[in-house]
Design a protein that fits this description.
It is built from five helices and 28 strands.
Length: 438
């Protein structure tokens, strides 16, 4: 009788030994924990890798459950994501050559290492020679020269306060010294240990380097008001530099009724001399290049514009007070958190390229995404009648996108607007802008 009682007890004990995992260790690599049974092992990975943490839970069946953590990691590393801060050196088609930037968290072997990777399947972001990029890759680094990595994503690296800015921003000559107050309300775009970069909150083609150290209280994207001195300004490049005196938070908002950052792109089929005139029902408040009864530029098929002074521009820019009766009887009511996704689809339907849409979204999204809802309506005749364009030679395709919008705390019901665009054929001219309605 007693033997019969011990049989199920023994069976239960055996099952517990075989299948119940017992905590067997915590590693110093970030807190990886392992739980081991005779038939399997569970590893809760929390391993610090280059610039990131590998946080996964894995099950290893017999006989892999008897392997050491280091042995299991050797196979696991192929699935792990690693991050590197790199500086882009060359872009040749889909191949990118970059150099790792010194950071105390990087292994010594990765300091000042040249890497090559493919951007064919990566998101299209605004990257130029010299851009700092946070690169995410999987697997190891292939031993070649330059080294090769399997890149899975990249993003502009803007918070660089662990390194000093290297390179000359502008040449500080007497003719570039300025006593003017060139800017007031600004937005932080990049941070280094010894300086930071900003752009005007009121959109204008001006890039500003402020020399001084920012505390941890300030982040990229913060809107601020600064006092500064020792201003230098290069009109040809649109670059300014000054020494920071003080900084404080700003709550500046766009003025209602102002047309902000309408920009004009020109894409002829061959290099062409183009003149553009703007007849505005209102008054211009800022233009770049300077509007002198019109703009006269040499336009290339890729959209590059060359002014009469030889300066290169990406587009023609204007801002102004405009007197128009906007029509908001149709449109869209979009949650603030869904605004980026909505604009990507809407701007594609309206005929903008990915590059044009990206520049549109980067400007307007920070003002819109924090609202509970945004009521959005794209204007047609009410805008184009108040801001008439005369382009010579006349484009075969003209696309003008002007968004009016306002934020609201509650959902607003309104008929949905139909968005269409002409096919981009021949010489194409594109304009986009917008205005917040109060």
């Amino acid at each position: 009788m007693k033997k019969k009682i011990w049989i199920p007890i023994a069976a239960v004990i055996l099952l517990l030994i075989l299948f119940v995992p017992i905590p067997t260790g915590v590693c110093k690599d970030g807190g990886t924990r392992e739980y081991t049974a005779l038939t399997y092992k569970i590893v809760d990975w929390n391993r610090i890798t280059s610039g990131t943490v590998y946080d996964k839970t894995r099950l290893y069946l017999f006989p892999y459950n008897f392997r050491s953590i280091d042995s299991l990691w050797y196979n696991e590393v192929e699935n792990a994501e690693h991050k590197l801060l790199v500086k882009v050196l060359e872009i040749n088609g889909s191949s990118v050559l970059a150099e790792t930037v010194y950071h105390s968290s990087l292994p010594l072997s990765l300091h000042s290492t040249r890497l090559v990777f493919s951007n064919r399947y990566l998101e299209n972001i605004d990257v130029d020679i010299g851009s700092m990029v946070l690169l995410t890759y999987t697997g190891g680094i292939m031993e070649s020269y330059p080294a090769q990595v399997n890149a899975v994503s990249w993003e502009p690296a803007n918070d660089l306060r662990h390194i000093e800015f290297s390179g000359e921003w502008l040449e500080k000559t007497d003719d570039k010294k300025s006593d003017a107050d060139m800017f007031e309300y600004i937005v932080i775009t990049r941070i280094y240990s010894d300086c930071f970069f900003v752009k005007p909150a009121i959109p204008m083609p001006l890039e500003i380097k402020l020399n001084g150290t920012l505390s941890e209280d300030w982040c990229v994207g913060d809107q601020v008001f600064c006092k500064y001195e020792n201003v230098y300004y290069d009109r040809e490049t649109g670059r300014a530099e000054a020494d920071l005196i003080s900084i404080e938070a700003s709550d500046w908002e766009p003025e209602p009724g102002v047309a902000y950052k309408p920009v004009i792109y020109l894409y002829p089929q061959k290099e062409t001399e183009v003149s553009v005139e703007l007849t505005l029902s209102g008054s211009l408040t800022c233009t770049y290049p300077e509007y002198r009864n019109g703009w006269n530029v040499t336009a290339a098929p890729d959209g590059t514009l060359t002014g009469q002074d030889g300066q290169i521009y990406n587009y023609l820019y204007w801002e102004g007070d405009i007197y128009a009766q906007y029509d908001l009887s149709e449109g869209f009511c979009i949650k603030g958190e869904d605004t980026a996704e909505f604009l990507e689809t809407a701007l594609n339907d309206l005929g903008l390229t990915r590059r044009e849409a990206n520049e549109f979204i980067v400007y307007w999204l920070p003002m819109m995404e924090k609202n509970s809802y945004n009521v959005i309506s794209f204007q047609t005749e009410s805008y184009t009648d108040a801001a008439q364009l005369d382009i010579s030679p006349a484009p075969d395709t003209l696309i003008r996108v002007f968004m009016t919008w306002y934020g609201t705390d509650s959902y607003t019901e309104l008929p949905e607007q139909t968005l269409t665009a002409p096919e981009r054929i021949g010489f194409t001219a594109v304009e986009w802008g917008g205005s917040e309605i109060k």
